[in-house]
């Protein structure tokens, strides 16, 4: 990845806190600043426009609570209900969020949305993406059980198969979904 050098001004207290965090995390201040800038470019800018941003104090209190409610409901759902919810989320939520953030709905933008929204920033699962020959291989590794695998399988199948017209082969275990999406 190519980089550029840029000089910025910041308040002294911010610099002190960055140095302290960098020391604790055993990374450079430059790495922390790049991480913060990446999060702004990938998430914060778009989230605020889409109404996802809440003040940090409220975000800390409300978003995890909402997620926990959804997680508890899904645990009690039947396999059919989990699959139906995954299809609904693919048709409605995933498409709308992807089109809003990236102004288009394509394999590339859907993969990016899946990575950013649920993996990198929501930290609900580990996301791996590889390209081999004529396939995009997406691995969703979580620790939330079979119902979540069913949900994610149907979400991915709906987004890439039904909506984007790609051939999708999916294998799943209780805590992992692997999707092979034909280019």
CATH architecture designation of the largest domain: Alpha-Beta Complex
Q: Compute the number of helices.
A: 6
Number of strands: 4
Structural class assignment: alpha+beta
Average residue-wise pLDDT: 84
Highest CATH level, the class of the largest domain: Alpha Beta
Query: Any idea what the CATH superfamily of the largest domain is called?
Result: H-NOX domain
List low-pLDDT spans: 53-63
- Indicate the proportion of strand residues: 5-15%
How would you describe this structure to a colleague?
With 183 residues, this protein is α+β, with helices and mostly antiparallel strands. It folds into two domains: 12-45; 79-182, Alpha-Beta Complex (H-NOX domain). It contains six helices and four strands; from the N terminus they run αααααββαββ. It has helices spanning 12-25, 29-49, 56-76, 79-102, 107-120, 146-163, and strands at residues 126-132, 135-141, 168-173, 176-182. Strand 3 (168-173) and strand 4 form a beta hairpin. Helix 1 (12-25) crosses helix 2, helix 4 packs across helix 5 (107-120) and helix 4 (79-102) packs across helix 6 (146-163). It is globular, with a radius of gyration of 19 Å.
Quick tags:
6 helices, H-NOX domain, 183 residues, 61% helix, alpha+beta, 4-stranded antiparallel beta sheet
Q: How would you summarize the topology of this molecule?
A:
Layout (H helix, E strand, L loop, with lengths): L11 H14 L3 H21 L6 H21 L2 H24 L4 H14 L5 E7 L2 E7 L4 H18 L4 E6 L2 E7 L1
Antiparallel strand pairs: 1-2, 2-4, 3-4
Helix pairs in contact: 1-2, 4-5, 4-6
């Amino acid at each position: 990845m190519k980089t550029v050098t840029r000089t910025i001004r910041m308040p002294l207290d911010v610099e002190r806190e960055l140095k302290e965090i960098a020391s604790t995390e055993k990374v450079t201040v430059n790495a922390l600043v790049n991480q913060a800038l990446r999060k702004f470019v990938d998430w914060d800018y778009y989230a605020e426009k889409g109404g996802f941003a809440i003040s940090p104090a409220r975000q800390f209190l409300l978003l995890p609570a909402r997620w926990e409610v959804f997680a508890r409901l899904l645990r009690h759902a039947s396999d059919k209900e989990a699959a139906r919810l995954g299809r609904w989320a693919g048709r409605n939520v995933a498409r709308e969020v992807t089109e809003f953030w990236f102004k288009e709905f394509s394999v590339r933008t859907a993969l990016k949305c899946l990575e950013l929204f649920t993996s990198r920033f929501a930290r609900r699962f580990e996301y791996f993406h590889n390209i081999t020959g004529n396939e995009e291989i997406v691995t969703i590794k979580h620790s939330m059980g079979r119902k979540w695998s069913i949900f994610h399988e149907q979400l991915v199948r709906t987004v890439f198969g039904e909506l984007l017209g790609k051939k999708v082969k999916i294998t799943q275990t209780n805590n992992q979904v692997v999707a092979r999406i034909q280019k």
